[in-house]
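Record type: monomer structure entry
Structure origin: computed from sequence
Chain ID: A
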Amino acid sequence: MTSILMKKYFVYILSCSDGSYYTGVTNDVLLRVDQHNQGLDSRAFTFSRRPVKLVWHAEFLNPVEAISREKQIKGWNRKKKEALIEGNYDLLPELSMSSLRQAQTDNNQILNLLPYSPPFLFVDKIIHINNFGCEGTYTFKQNHDFYKGHFKDFPVTPGVILTECCAQIGLVCLGIFLLGLEEGGMDGNRLQIAMSSNEMEFLLPVYPGETVTVVSEKMYFRFGKLKCKVKMHNEKGGLICKGTISGMFKIPSNEN
């Protein structure tokens, strides 16, 4: 009878000499801790924070699940990591909600986390947001610079701007919400966003002074990539444009 040895992967947390925590993934946790303490890489987070001590680890048979768990824990705040280390699992949901209440239940806070500012901010208000989509509004100001040349003596909002408005409301606002749920809170100053693709169909024009409503529906959100269906309507309910937009969301590691 042949025995099959499954390769194991470990997600681990180290306590560093300066009081910070480091989260990593490896296939040999004891060897990896020893390598951290040897200081083999001068660029590593732990190099100047030695000695380090292993304070938590979990075992996985699927490397994708291990990497996903590592990324999730890296985004947690200090209190949530310490609850995990101490085995206080019942505190994890409450710690997630306490760090999310401002960013996820206060729509104004989500707006504050947007990485845009006038004149390139195309979100006025979030009406509704949840795990499945987002709805928000924007009024196109009559003094926007792009109206001066698009078109001469007959200003119409450019399609690329309508797409950007759909992306900011339907994709980015929703992405911030979903990232907060997944990571257990987030620092908006570290948020990195990149539009990866869009397919839009334009049906009606938008003139200066018009208010539009954008509604998005999440298609999927995994490994930092969000794809949504979006629709934009005018105040009369007319469908201005529709399509799909996708983007990548990333919060660089900021261990604490």
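Annotation 1: The chain has a mean pLDDT of 87.
Annotation 2: Helices lie at 29-38, 63-74, 78-85, 92-105, 107-113, 159-183.
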